[in-house]
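ARCHIVE CARD
CATEGORY: sequence design from structure
SOURCE FIELD: tokenized fold
FIELD CONTENT:
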């Protein structure tokens, strides 16, 4: 039979330190804290968790985004015959898949996460804020790869564009995805209500549709200035110029470098918005 002794009457098994008497006050030695999680392992863990969580729910929406972009190209086929306008339509429709998932859906996700108290869960984990934002953004951007490739190939067939340099998508998809995902995460985290986050995500995707798919030459000058501020514009320009018979690789690299810089800025803004929302 086990005997239970109250804690206040239980004899202490602690021994005095060498060189001290047992009559003095006990000295408390604090245990060392666990090391802070590093960025890359934390990023990989968040990415795997988000990827497995969103796989079932986001795949049907990816089909919607792909069919939407293909439908836009079919409609534009009756208006645009070829040339630079056709290249702009195919490139803009391909990047629109990225905008639908990385901008629109990510804004809704972080808006709901903030409203439902999900940020409190991430705040208790020993992971850097940048790992949470980057992991979620990378997971959502990963869903855009099949739809973007399918849209680019379909558009090339519709408008009879060369597919020799479609490997540029290897750079266009992650860079445009990072820029748009950072913007979507920032919109969702800064919105005071999830309904407003959904509205902002929809407006951002509509801007990517109107300013990315329509040829730049047909846009009014003030609208062209707004197009230059859209993060996905530079990915569209890089992909559109890869359809040329003799692409200007220096100009393509320039547009990709701008897209990368915008991606870094947007992800930094999303990280700041996450810290701001997590402490409230």
């Amino acid at each position: 039979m086990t005997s239970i002794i109250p804690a206040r009457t239980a004899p202490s098994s602690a021994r005095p330190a060498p060189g001290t008497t047992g009559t003095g006050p006990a000295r408390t030695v604090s245990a060392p804290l666990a090391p802070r999680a590093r960025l890359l392992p934390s990023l990989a863990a968040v990415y795997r968790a988000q990827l497995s969580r969103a796989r079932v729910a986001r795949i049907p929406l990816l089909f919607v985004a792909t069919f939407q972009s293909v439908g836009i190209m079919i409609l534009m086929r009756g208006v645009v015959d070829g040339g630079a306008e056709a290249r702009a339509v195919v490139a803009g429709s391909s990047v629109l898949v990225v905008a639908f998932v990385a901008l629109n859906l990510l804004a809704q996700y972080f808006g709901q996460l903030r409203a439902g108290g999900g940020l409190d869960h991430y705040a208790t984990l020993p992971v850097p804020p940048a790992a949470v934002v980057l992991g979620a953004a990378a997971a959502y951007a990963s869903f855009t790869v099949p739809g973007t490739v399918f849209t680019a190939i379909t558009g090339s067939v519709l408008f009879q564009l060369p597919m020799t340099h479609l490997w540029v998508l290897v750079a266009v998809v992650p860079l445009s995805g990072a820029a748009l995902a950072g913007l979507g995460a920032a919109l969702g985290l800064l919105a005071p209500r999830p309904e407003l986050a959904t509205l902002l995500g929809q407006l951002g995707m509509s801007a990517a549709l109107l300013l990315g798919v329509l040829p730049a030459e047909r846009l009014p000058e003030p609208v062209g200035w707004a197009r230059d501020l859209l993060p996905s514009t530079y990915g569209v320009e890089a992909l559109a110029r890869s359809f040329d018979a003799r692409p200007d690789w220096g100009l393509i690299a320039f547009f990709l470098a701008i897209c990368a810089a915008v991606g870094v800025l947007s992800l930094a803004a999303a990280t700041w918005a996450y810290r701001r929302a997590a402490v409230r």
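CARD ANNOTATION: The first helix runs from residue 39 to 77. DSSP finds ten helices and no strands in the chain.
SHELF: design records, drawer C
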